[in-house]
Amino acid sequence: MVEACRYSDRPLAFLARYVRKRPGAHAAILMAVVAAVACSVGAQYGVKVLVDTLAGGLYVGTHARDAWLGFLLLATLIAADNMLWRVASWIASYTFVAVTGDLRRDLFRHLTGHAPSYFADRMPGTLTSRITATSNAVFTLQNMSVWNVLPPSMATLIAIALVVTVSAPMAAALVLVQSKGVYCNLVQQEVARLAKQAA
């Protein structure tokens, strides 16, 4: 009972406790997603190599071999991207559900450790629905982080890293533009939230 109370003011530490219970699975999901995003960004580079090779003319020197190598690079990156997303999904399909189950179990144990007088003012159905809502929120948070937040963030970082290899000033300009876009998006969300509160 005391264990759950330690995290009452620290929700991220509470969530991290459950992530640490399955470090291997969470690390595998993270690595698979980052590698899939790298393959996705790399596939764009593979298309560039293939187009550049084809634009040079196929039948001059070794260009036909280079075109096939560019095609092979592109096909390999696309296949690896697809496979890594499936691996991440497969691992997440049982890891995130297990984290949700652990969370529910621990919260129910915490609840059942209270004296019967605790339930005089608090309806058990309400407490149960709060536990369900909390565990569903954690499940949604993990899914949103892995599938909706991490991929575009990593794709942006990897793309900027590729641009740095070409031109550092151009990469700096892209970082500024991206930062402005993120800032504008956050401002827009805050304005929408305030408008919703005012309504």
Can you describe this structure?
- With 199 residues, the chain is an all-alpha fold.
- It folds into two domains: 2-166, ABC transporter transmembrane region fold; 168-199.
- 88% of the residues lie in helices and 0% in strands.
- The protein contains seven helices and no strands.
- α3 (23-55) packs antiparallel against α4, α3 (23-55) packs parallel to α6 and α6 (124-166) packs antiparallel against α7 (168-198).
- The radius of gyration is 24 Å and the shape is elongated.
- The model has no long low-confidence stretch (mean pLDDT 84).
Q: What is the terminal separation in angstroms?
A: 41 Å
**Percent helix range:** over 70%
From the alpha carbons, calculate the radius of gyration and give it in angstroms: 24 Å
Regions with little confidence, pLDDT below 50 for 5+ residues:
none
Element-by-element helix/strand order: HHHHHHH
Task: Tell me the overall shape.
Answer: elongated
**Major sheet: size, sense and barrel closure?**
none
